[in-house]
Amino acid sequence: MNRRRFVLSALLAPLALTGLGWRTSRADHGPIQTLGLSDHEWHNRLSPPQYHILRDEGTERAFSSALNNEKRAGIYACAGCELPLFSSDAKFDSGTGWPSFTQAITGHTETSTDFKMIWPRTEYHCARCGGHQGHIFDDGPQPTGQRWCNNGLALTFIHTA
Questions:
Q1: I want to staple 52 with a disulfide (CB 3.0 to 4.6 A). Which of 29, 34, 58, 117 is the partner?
Q2: Separation of alpha carbons 103 and 96, rounded Å
Q3: Alpha carbon distance 119, 113 (integer Å)
Q4: Which residues are catalytic?
Q5: pLDDT confidence of 30, banded at 50, 70, 90?
Q6: What is the DSSP string of 47-75?
């Protein structure tokens, strides 16, 4: 954790505990075996840009991912551990430059509140490996009204048709 993030987290922690709320959620649809790898193992498994996103909670440049334009039927899985996170049925073009979905596969993500941009945002991670995926916004299409904005480098596409 870098120094600036540590200081900001320490200053905003009381807010998280008193009303804006820290939350972690995962619907329970059977146990997901967590993947606990050492930092060295993660460096060996991931490319440097993937490591930055999945392990350091970074963000790729908008419109840089080929998955942003992917239209085929399939599954979008975590690039860190291959846990399926999204179905292509939930994908839509948000115009933001990142692959976006209306919902995740139930129980395959965990959420928390982050304050990296000062105001609270809902961040989500892979339930198996804890890899950072992106953020959830309330400006998506119906029926959910949500936009799960994902880093393309944090995903692997598995074509199913």
A1: 58
A2: 17
A3: 10
A4: 149
A5: low
A6: -HHHHHHHTT---PPTT--GGGG--SSEE
